[in-house]
Amino acid sequence: MADETYLTSGVKGLVDGDITEVPQIFHVPSSILSNNRPDDTSGLNLTVPIIDLGEVNNDDKSARNVVVSKIKDAAEKWGFFQVINHGVPLTVLEDIKEGVRKFHEEDPKVKNQYLATDINKRFVYNNNYDIHQLHWRDSFTCYISPDPPNPDEIPVACRGAVIEYSKHVMELGDLLFQLLSEALGLDSEVLMRMDCLKGLFMLCHYYPPCPQPDLTLGISKHTDNSFLTLLLQDQVGGLQVLHQDYWVDVPPVPGALVVNIGDFMQLITNDKFLSLEHRVRVNRDKPRISIACFFSSSLSPNSTVYGPIKELLSDENPPKYKDITIPEYTAGYLANLFDGESYLSNFRI
Predict the structure, then answer these.
(1) Is this model's pTM higher than 0.90 or not?
(2) What is the Cα–Cα distance from 104 to 205, expressed in whole angstroms?
């Protein structure tokens, strides 16, 4: 019965049915759930960097250089950082979280109208997304760029919020790609000219309360098949990044956005910037909302061939990856998603 409910009403449907135990299909081995943290962390820096973007757009070149230096350090050592004073209004952040919550708390009959029955749909609801690796969450995807949806393709519950938030994400993405280009020691427009900002899609998750949070995961460990990912999370928490072989919490910071390097960025920077594995733990008490925006053309038609940026290469730093198109990479990535291995390693020379 639990299996049948899950396939028709998602994880939220199970929780609404007042279950007291996590169905076996969601169980994850305890060895995988372990945080793998040492007893003594005094000699380790296990705090995800927080970077203030407030001074970047001022005329003070030295202030911008300080921010670029911090981003360079975070991208090289962590692959993750949080940004504050990023220019996205707090009201916009709150509206998109509320819009995602409203959609996922709609009647299943309403949500199921948006199931993936048509490959051309720009808005897709997934209540059994990982059918071979079940996770404690429901999700929807909205493809924003380069071919944005018509407003009426987006559910009323989140329509205005999705449209408004995506505008701000594109603007912030523009700035971040400039800063990352400078952090590579290159012209600020290099990553833009490579069309890193061209593709964008949103993946909006709803993690219902879990009666036995120590038995399952919201998302298993994985890297992102993107150039860059921007994540907005609510104040519940649960996101962790694998840093120096330890699962480190990425704590919610009010008004902040999480930035993480994706596989394509690691490839084109020839391992200078790192795409690290991350996962999501679930909790017993309340639902968690997160909105992930991926700068990637994913499976969209795109014949551009990507490889390590030539300006970064030398006799001492030869190319470490083969050239590949994003659709080719993504097809294999999705076929091997959550298998416990980094798909990027398949393309090492």
Answers:
(1) yes
(2) 9
